[in-house]
Amino acid sequence: MTENLNYIPQFDASKGLEFGLYTLGDHLADPHTGTLISPQQRLQNIKKMAVLAEQAGLDTFIVGESHQDHFVTQAHAIVLAAIAEATKTITLSSGATIISTSDPVRVFENFSTIDLLSNGRIELVAGRASRVGLFELLGYDLADYEELFEEKFDLLLKLNQQETITWEGKFRKPLRNAHILPRPLNKQLPIWRAVGGGPGSAVRAGRAGVPMYMAHLAGAAQSFKYTIDAYRQSANDAGFDGDHLPIATAGLFYVADTTQEALREYYQHVNAGLVLTNGQGFPKQAFAQAPDKRSILNVGSPQQVIEKILYQHELFGHQRYIAQLDFGGVPFDKIMKNIELIGNEILPAVKKYTAK
Amino acid sequence: MKITLLSGSVVGTKTQTTMTIIQKKIQEQYPETSVTLLDLKQLTLQFSDGRNYLDYTDDTRFVTTTLMDSDIILIGSPTFQASIPGTLKNVFDLLPQSAFENKVVGLVMTAGSAKHFLVAEMHLKPIIHYMKGNLVANYVFIEERDFHQATIVNDDVLLRLDKLIEDAIVLTKAYKQVWAEQEASYDF
Question: What is the ipTM of this complex?
Answer without folding.
Answer: 0.89
